[in-house]
Amino acid sequence: MDLLSWFLTIGIWLGVFYIGGVKAAAAPGEHFAILIVSANAYGLTTATLALVKGHLFPDSKDRRFSGSIFHDFLAGVELNPRLGRHWDLKMFHIGRLGMNSWVILYLSTIDITHDHFGFYLGWGSAVWLPFVYTMQTQYLASHCVQLSPKALYTILATGISGYYLFRLANHQKYSLRQKGEECRIWGDLPRIIKAEFTTADGERHNTSLLFSGKP
């Protein structure tokens, strides 16, 4: 369904381009300022309502309370808050709103599984992901720069390398969670830090922090 929504989003944008031309297709970029103000209002409202819902109208027992209302607002209370039976707010914001709007403005990460839904994911998918990640293109659209082939390929290689490292780090964390200490990091057994913490409800939890990964 995520892939379908992505194709639908791109298809609609291409339809707008075909019917209205470049000016119509570039409308999101031309109205960047008002869009970012609206997105901030939406993201803050969503995070606030998610906090209230997690405290008063939870969908399940899979909640996390830190003892700090500010931390609960930022990190979230519920793991997968829903509206009705089928509308998963976290999946909608990350898989639909965040990723698809990023693509339009720019012309399975681990946070979906483990992070609770609060300001980081609610506001982040509405504002940080689509607007901050595309700020460079917004600048270049207004300040045209002619790059030499060497500069172009250097920037491209840097971007690809950074994204590769990001995906590699996520994969290493995922492998540790799935296979535990038997996973392999660059062919070797991982070095980890065993950590124990207690949540506000008094329940103790254990986790493993990966700090190795030598090639």
Automatic annotation (TrEMBL):
Annotated TM spans: 6-25, 32-52, 117-139, 151-169
Pfam families membership: ERG4_ERG24 (PF01222)
Documented EC number(s): 1.3.1.21
A Gene Ontology BP annotation from the UniProt entry: brassinosteroid biosynthetic process
Keyword terms, alphabetized: Cholesterol biosynthesis, Cholesterol metabolism, Lipid biosynthesis, Lipid metabolism, Membrane, NADP, Oxidoreductase, Steroid biosynthesis, Steroid metabolism, Sterol biosynthesis, Sterol metabolism, Transmembrane, Transmembrane helix
InterPro entries: ERG24_DHCR-like
Localization per Swiss-Prot or TrEMBL: Membrane
Highest taxon, organism lineage: Eukaryota
GO CC, one annotated term: endoplasmic reticulum membrane
Gene Ontology molecular-function annotations: 7-dehydrocholesterol reductase activity
KW Oxidoreductase (keyword) present: yes
Kinase in keyword set: no
Enzyme's top EC category: oxidoreductase
Principal location listed in the UniProt entry: membrane
Membrane topology reported for the UniProt record: Multi-pass membrane protein
Protein family according to the UniProt entry: Belongs to the ERG4/ERG24 family.
Protein's recorded name: 7-dehydrocholesterol reductase
